[in-house]
Design a protein that fits this description.
The chain is built from six helices and four strands, in the order ααβββααααβ. With 174 residues, it is of the alpha/beta class.
């Protein structure tokens, strides 16, 4: 199952909204938020290692270094948020009328952006131990929940209640 063009537009809107919320929550300017390099791919465009069962999204970190540049000056890293369309659509289908794509995508987008901001500010290392990553998931969920309070709706509250710590929102992969 892949996102339809309309669902992809909704996902894009959720990430734009989540960027604003994250910037406000972490007190980062729009320019500072843009320094957090990331892209978002849906299932149809993912590499095999970017597809994961059991998560709505999977976060990968990639390092880029120009071949002709031997120094670190031309190198950088970026994150890829790998949306697992099939898992998201299955959750919506199983949730029938009470789980809606817009609030679920907003939660997923906000959650993944919290991870990226925390990695970029040094709150936690991307390559942390499994035990540290499990603790980090709890922290990120609480931060995301707090960050979304300003935009809370009955549909978003249902998402927060249904997909709290009982379900993995994302996995981390280097």
């Amino acid at each position: 199952m892949y996102f339809s063009p309309i669902q992809m537009t909704m996902a894009n809107g959720a990430f734009q909204h989540a960027e604003k919320l994250a910037g406000h929550y972490f007190r980062l300017t729009t320019d500072r938020m843009r320094l957090n390099r990331y892209d978002v791919k849906t299932l149809a465009y993912l590499e095999d290692h970017e597809v994961r069962d059991g998560a709505f999204a999977h976060l990968c970190k990639y390092h880029y270094k120009k071949e002709e540049n031997k120094s670190d000056l031309g190198s950088f890293h970026f994150y890829r948020i790998c949306l697992q369309d099939n898992r998201i659509l299955d959750a919506i289908d199983r949730g029938h009328s009470f789980i809606k794509i817009t609030p679920l995508m907003l939660y997923i987008a906000a959650h993944e952006l919290v991870h990226i901001v925390r990695f970029e500010t040094g709150e936690i290392e991307f390559d942390a131990s499994l035990e540290e990553k499990e603790r980090e998931e709890e922290k990120v969920h609480m931060i995301t929940k707090d960050m979304l309070q300003s935009t809370m709706s009955p549909e978003l509250k249902i998402v927060l209640d249904c997909f709290s710590s009982r379900y993995k929102i994302g996995d981390l992969f280097n």
